[in-house]
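Duplicate of earlier report; GMP/IMP nucleotidase input re-posted below.
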Amino acid sequence: MINWHDIDTVLLDMDGTLLDLHFDNHFWLEYMPAKYAEKQGISLDAAKQHLEPIFVQTSGQLQWYCLDYWRQTLDLDMVAIKQEIAHLITLRPSTEAFLTALHQSKKQVVLITNAHQDSLSLKLERIALSHYFDYMITSHKYGYPKEQPPFWEHLAKEIHFDPSRALFIDDSLPILRSARDYGIKHLLAISRPDSKLPPKATEEFLGVDSYLSLLPIND
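Output:
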């Protein structure tokens, strides 16, 4: 699937790519709306109806991923609420074997996530990931999400990689398209980011479910 001799840098998303997206889907679609409904004294359906247009308006924007924005908008302690269901944070199947193989290679391995720093910290408390990476970068550091071109420009300045010799894996098709537009040559889409849901279409991108299909990795 990948000719590893053509790859110097591996860029990896976190949620839905390394970690099971079930935690995030459950949090945003069920658990947090229930907490908001409880705080406002309204039904869960009413809470979801209130939240839906806010979700649509912020989709693909940095605010969507910003826990500070949601805390201010909804008057909810988002970190505390996430901690209540932190036991749902788990690795996707075969992720550990894949990361171990990458770590043992000579390739530059970089985590790039839209997750807010507090969300990243919470997940790193549950799952030890940092030792696998040369860099761990949240888009909040740059002020732009991965969906937007300036993110990639800032990234290139920080880690100095050749887009034509980089592999990027993500579960978001809009983000993969943004990376492709920047010039990243090797792209893979996660076909089943949420273990509780069926696989999704990866459209123009080659899809991958198990990382075992990418092994072995050659220097």
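The mean pLDDT is 96.

Merging into the original ticket.
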